[in-house]
Amino acid sequence: MRAGATAEITRLVEELSRLSPEFEALWQDNDVAGNADGHKRVHHPEQGILELEFSSFAIEGRPDLGMIDYNPATAETARRIASPVGPASSA
Q: Is residue 89 part of a domain?
């Protein structure tokens, strides 16, 4: 795994590699480059504001391919993401 990869990224790459031989081959070629990291606030219609951290990756020579990884930036966002979402109940 690449230096600086979090446990979540490592698990994601392992899962994608297991599910997609093409992803595994591209990842092993080491042509994946980090493009951007940052924070994003997203308004979810049922969960409210979600604070997220993201990392985007591109495949050199393949502008049609990319991957963006989003993770909760706060404990509150992690709690909201983990809770089930469904239709609002009528009062």
A: no
For residue 1, being part of any structural domain is answered with no
Cα–chain center distance at 44 = 17
Please report whether residue 91 resides in a domain. no
Write out the two tokens for 20: 């997609």
**pLDDT tens profile 47-89:** 899 999 998 887 778 778 888 889 999 999 999 988 877 655 5
Structural domain including 70 reads: 7-82
* Measured distance CA(52)–CA(49) in Å, rounded: 10
Give phi and psi for 41, each to the nearest 5: -110, 125
Dihedral through CA 79, CA 80, CA 85, CA 87, nearest 10?
Answer: 130
**SS3 label, residue 4:** coil
Give the C-alpha separation, 69 to 67, whole Å: 7
What tokens appear for 56 in the block? 């985007």
pTM of the complete model: 0.53
